[in-house]
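quick q for whoever's on today - can somebody do inverse folding on this one?? i tried earlier but teh output was garbage lol. tokens:
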């Protein structure tokens, strides 16, 4: 059984139609297609059950295989041309001292990504994953001094109008205007349409973005901000307490911003908003979405609030060491593949989980069945005895 969908429509008219259809998902005019297929799911489960192993003995690797098969519509799925995309943006709220690192680290790390020296760079290279860095709103012109129209390998600049300095300070005003938010969402959707492959891995970089993610979690999940706030890039306990107090002020200032898109505009950031657009478009195109840690999951949190069926297409790479991530995963009702105490971001956890997803597909495609290997299955008598 193989009903794997095509990801790209040909022709400008088809692309325009697809763009409109995807935006309808954002504003709620249409619902994301339900890809649940009982016949396919049963075929996938039967395939796994008939492999030469005790039932369920490969644990959550089998769950991953089932999910990937469902997304790609195949009992023999193949993950093709994986794309790691790291979304970068600065946050005006850092002026309130909510991070252990200065905001300049955002652009410095973008340069590190482009030079191939960051964790996500080496892990992507190790695993044959294409890496793209997207400037969504970094306080840096990465093309400065180059001739007009120049590009840099591995970099895309997708800044909304007025995003040259990152988001505004959300303790004073909304992080983004609604126009900026919508432009960032559209940038994310357009980005996906231009990428090859059937698997997208989400990463991010932005000093201060754990605060934005904590605010989104508190507002959309109805949790106290103290539960949602952690050490970020390495704050000590008193600094975490001060950060929590600042975030409580931000929530109070934007008390009326309760709808998902309103909360996104209020709290930011540009990289998160762009990822929301990416998640919705990738879900619309039925790609496998591999979600990294706390920040990437916050984008899924918003996308899920808009279109709950995005979760059908998402695999969560790991449970972050950042405090709020466990509560975010619980709110979404999902379980992550790995728990390594990671809190680096960048997409590093997604890259580490990638070989497991490849293995899950290999199990489905290549592992022998009892019949093909001539191996006896568990007898009825043994099953009766337990």
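ok took a stab at it. sequence:
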């Amino acid at each position: 059984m193989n009903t794997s969908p095509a990801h790209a429509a040909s022709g400008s008219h088809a692309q325009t139609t697809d763009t409109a259809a995807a935006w309808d998902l954002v504003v709620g005019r249409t619902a994301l297609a339900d890809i649940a297929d009982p016949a396919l799911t049963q075929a996938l489960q039967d395939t796994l059950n008939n492999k030469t192993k005790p039932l369920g003995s490969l644990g959550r690797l089998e769950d991953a295989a089932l999910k990937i098969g469902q997304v790609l519509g195949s009992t023999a799925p193949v993950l093709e041309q994986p794309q790691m995309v790291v979304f970068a943006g600065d946050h005006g709220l850092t002026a309130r001292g909510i991070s252990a690192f200065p905001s300049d680290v955002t652009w410095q790390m973008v340069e590190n990504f482009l030079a191939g020296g960051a964790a996500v760079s080496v892990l992507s290279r190790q695993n044959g994953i294409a890496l793209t860095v997207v400037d969504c709103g970094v306080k840096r012109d990465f093309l400065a001094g180059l001739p007009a129209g120049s590009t840099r390998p591995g970099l895309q600049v997708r800044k909304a109008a007025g995003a040259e300095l990152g988001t505004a300070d959300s303790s004073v005003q909304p992080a983004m205007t609604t126009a900026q938010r919508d432009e960032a969402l559209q940038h994310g959707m357009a980005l996906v349409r231009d990428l090859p492959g059937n698997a997208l891995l989400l990463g991010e970089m932005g000093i201060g973005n754990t605060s934005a993610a904590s605010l989104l979690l508190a507002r959309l999940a109805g949790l106290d901000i103290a539960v949602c706030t952690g050490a970020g890039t390495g704050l000590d306990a008193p600094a975490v307490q001060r950060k929590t107090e600042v975030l409580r002020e931000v929530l109070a200032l934007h008390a009326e911003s309760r709808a998902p898109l309103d909360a996104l505009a209020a709290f930011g950031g540009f990289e998160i908003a762009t990822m929301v657009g990416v998640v919705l478009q990738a879900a619309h195109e039925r790609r496998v979405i591999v979600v990294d840690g706390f920040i990437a999951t916050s984008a899924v949190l918003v996308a899920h609030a808009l279109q709950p069926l995005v979760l059908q297409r998402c695999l969560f790479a790991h449970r972050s060491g950042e405090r709020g991530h466990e509560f975010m995963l619980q709110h979404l009702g999902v379980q992550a593949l790995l728990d390594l105490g990671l809190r680096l971001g960048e997409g590093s956890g997604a890259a580490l989980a990638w070989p497991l997803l490849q293995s899950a597909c290999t199990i489905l495609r290549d592992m022998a069945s009892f019949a093909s290997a001539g191996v006896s299955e568990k007898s009825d008598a043994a099953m009766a005895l337990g």
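fwiw The two ends are 33 Å apart (CA to CA). also The beta strands are 83-89, 130-137, 155-157, 199-205, 288-291, 314-316. so keep that in mind when u check it
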